[in-house]
Design goal:
- The protein has 19 helices and 18 strands.
- The protein has 479 residues and is α/β, with parallel strands linked by helices.
- It has two domains: 262 residues, Rossmann fold (3-Layer(aba) Sandwich); 192 residues, Glycogen Phosphorylase B (Rossmann fold).
- The strands form three sheets. It has a nine-stranded mixed beta sheet, sandwiched between helices. A six-stranded parallel beta sheet has the order 15-14-13-16-17-18, with helices on both faces.
- It catalyses: [(1->4)-alpha-D-glucosyl](n) + ADP-alpha-D-glucose = [(1->4)-alpha-D-glucosyl](n+1) + ADP + H(+).
Length: 479
């Protein structure tokens, strides 16, 4: 087995704020059949305290970017885990990136530079007993890791995966001296980025290969609308950029085995979803009805198109639809959905926050899931929807475009449609898509065919794992 190191700021089920954790948690299993043994490096957050206490110290730093730190060996499922135990950086109340009020930690520049430095040393022969052929860095929090490998003279190949290019890790350039990087990296060819430090930019510059989480997103980020200032670098390195759609873990997301569902089901027992539908109605205070239940499981942000959806809610209700929303985010958007629920009691139910079990129930009981994102690198909720027979209604962007087959006339006639895809994220476009969903739902035989087509699609990690393995093999074969 070829040893690789995966460096990330979160991994399911240990710590999760979004889809990044699901990907990092699933990759080790997906790569094992292809001859790769994955060790994951994570920060030592309080959520990992028990693992740290029970683990074995394999390395100590008296001074890792100004703090004492150690590496603790533990397990992530059946795979090795290394935890960067640096209490001064990570043992604090709040989330992985910010305090209990949601404000970013002022020292995030140091926290995640330390994580990346540890990854760079691990893959450059600086930690006794640890050898890796390849380093795989995920998002800006690990973005400096490929730069450290280069600075330390490491021979390991490096891969930088962009899960969302909008989050770049930009910090004051005055911090450069504390990073322990050579002076030449304080430039456009290193970590300098528009007069600041760019952690994601540094990874994109230094890595041997760049991946995004869908083929369409890999193309989109070459233009200013989606590249967020990094499009020039992406174009310059275009021959190193590829897109690999995320998978989902059937051990976690399977309606036939999901303990969060009152009634489990598969393609042969789809009628059992009715019990879950009733549970959704009860949980969100929705009056029973024959019209479709739409759901949203999302961050409530501009990127996700939630402002546009808020403008369409009166129309959704007027068409006979109902909405069950689970999410949190921008306070004005939270207030807009709460106000809509007050205007339409029994038709719109809102839960502010996140609940993993409730998200499973919504996929297993709602009729359709709304995902009107302005940009979506991959998206996982539409994949969960497909697996659970919860028909996705999505914008044509990124991974949404790559994974959902629009219910146009030809696709419906061929029996391959799996959802509804709309162009543009405007009230008119989304209202029209919702109207299409309501009309299709009224034709239950056709709606069921869409559900079954989605459930038949294979979005497990089998194919995605093979593609990552092919990428690794190609890199390792290069001189």
């Amino acid at each position: 087995m070829t040893p690789i190191l995966s460096v990330a700021s979160e991994a399911y089920p240990l710590v999760k704020t979004g889809g990044l954790a699901d990907v990092v948690g699933a990759l080790p299993d997906a790569l094992t059949p292809h001859g790769f043994a994955t060790t994951t490096l994570l920060p030592g957050y309080p959520a990992l305290a028990d693992l740290i206490a029970q683990g074995e110290t394999v390395h100590r730093w008296p001074d890792l970017l100004g703090v004492e730190a150690r590496l603790v060996a533990a397990q992530l499922g059946e795979h090795p885990l290394l935890v960067l135990d640096a209490p001064a950086l990570f043992a604090r109340a709040g989330g992985p990136y910010g305090d209990t009020t949601g404000r970013d930690w002022d020292d995030n520049w140091r926290r995640f530079a330390a994580l990346a430095r540890a990854g760079g040393e691990l893959t450059s022969g600086h930690v006794a007993g640890q050898r890796f052929a390849l380093l795989h860095a995920h998002d800006w929090q690990a973005g400096l890791a490929p730069a450290y490998v280069r600075a330390l003279g490491g021979r390991a190949k490096t891969v930088m995966t962009v899960h969302n290019i909008a989050f770049q890790g930009r910090f004051d350039r005055a911090h450069f001296a504390a990073l322990g990087l050579p002076d030449w990296m304080n430039s456009i060819h290193g970590v300098e980025y528009y007069g600041a430090l760019g952690y994601l930019k540094a990874g994109l510059e230094a890595a041997d290969a760049i991946t995004t989480v869908s083929p369409t997103y890999a193309r989109e980020i070459r233009v200013p609308e989606f590249g967020m200032g990094l499009e020039g670098l992406i174009v310059d390195r275009a021959d190193m950029v590829s897109g690999i759609v995320n998978g989902i873990d059937p051990a976690v997301w399977s309606p036939a085995n999901d303990a969060a569902l009152p009634a489990r089901y598969d393609a042969d027992t789809l009628d059992a979803r009715a019990a879950n539908r009733a549970a959704v109605e009860a949980a969100f205070g929705l009056a029973p009805g024959s019209g479709p239940i739409f759901t949203v499981v999302s961050r409530l942000t501009w990127q996700k198109g939630m402002d546009v959806l808020a403008d369409c809610l009166d129309a959704l209700v007027a068409m006979g639809g109902r909405l069950a929303l689970l999410g949190s985010g921008d306070k004005p958007l939270e207030a807009a959905f709460i106000a809509a629920a007050a205007r339409h009691p029994g038709r719109i139910g809102v839960r502010i926050g996140y609940d993993e079990a409730l998200s499973h129930l919504l996929q297993g009981g709602a009729d359709a899931i709304l995902i009107p994102s302005r940009f979506e690198p991959c998206g996982l909720t539409q994949l969960y929807g497909l697996a659970y027979g919860c028909v996705p209604v999505v914008a044509r962007t990124g991974g949404l475009a790559d994974t959902v087959i629009d219910a146009n006339q030809a696709a419906l006639a061929a029996g391959v449609a799996t959802g509804i895809v709309h162009d543009g994220v405007t009230p008119d476009a989304l209202t029209h898509a919702i109207a299409r969903a309501v009309a299709l739902h009224a034709d239950q035989p056709r709606w069921r065919r869409m559900q079954l087509s989605g459930m038949a699609a294979d979005f497990s990690w089998n194919e995605s794992g093979r593609r990552y393995a092919d990428l690794y093999h190609n890199l390792l074969e290069r001189p």
